[in-house]
Amino acid sequence: MRQEKEAYVNPRTVAVDLLTAPGNNAVIRLPDRKYPGILIQGDSFYALFVELDDLAVAASSRSADPELVENAVAVRDNIGELLARYEQALALHGMTLP
């Protein structure tokens, strides 16, 4: 799931299609994309990561099922990569974390 795209040094403004009412999340479609994506506010995304981290730690310490542990850790790590990308983009643009 590694993201190879870097953050823009100078932010770009683009029009997006907002397919749901905005809140802590929204379904949007970016220009030139066939399928929409999900926008999750940073604080909500971090809360999701913390829950996944707790799950991965619990699975690792309590489960005898190696596939469960592997899957829990993989999901946590993939979400962690997205969180790192978010944090790097904010830092590049002088923004504070929520």
Characterization of the model:
This protein has 98 residues and is mainly alpha-helical. The protein contains two helices and three strands. A three-stranded antiparallel beta sheet has the order 1-2-3. A hairpin with a 6-residue loop joins strand 1 (17-18) and strand 2. Helix 1 packs antiparallel against helix 2. The model has no long low-confidence stretch (mean pLDDT 90).
> How many domain regions?
1
Q: How do the SSEs run, as a string of H and E?
A: EEEHH
Largest sheet: 3 strands, antiparallel
Q: Kindly state the percentage of residues in helix.
A: 40-55%
Mean pLDDT over the full residue set: 90
Q: Per DSSP, what share of the residues sits in E-state strands of 2 or more residues?
A: 5-15%
General form: elongated
pLDDT < 50 stretches = none
Major sheet: arrangement of strands: 1-2-3
Roughly how many Å apart are the termini? 24 Å
Total count of strands? 3
Separate helix tally = 2
Quickly give the structural class.
mainly alpha
Compute the gyration radius: what is it?
16 Å
